Amino acid sequence: MKHILNIILIGLISPFAGSSQSAMTLEDAIAIALKNNYDIQLAENSKRQADNNQSIYNTGFLPTFNASGNANYSNSNTSFTTQQGVDNTINGAEIKSLGTSVGLNYVLFNGGARKFQFDRLKKQYLLASSQKKLQIENTLIEVYTLFLNIARNQEQKKTLDTAFSISKSRLERTKIQQKYGQRTTLDVLNAKVDANNDSINLINLQVQLDNNKRNLNFLLGRDISTMFLVNNQVVLDPNMSLDRLKTAMDSNNVQLKQIELNKQISNHDLNINKAAWVPSLSASASYGLDYRDNGKVGFFQNQNSAGLNAGVNLSWDIFDGGANKVRVQNARINLENQSLNEQKLKLSLENQLAIFWAEYTTQMTLISNETINVKVNEQNFLKSQEQFNLGQISSLDFRQAQLNLIQTKLNLLNASYNAKLAEFQLKRFAGLLLEQ
Question: What percent of the chain has pLDDT over 70?
Answer without folding.
Answer: 92
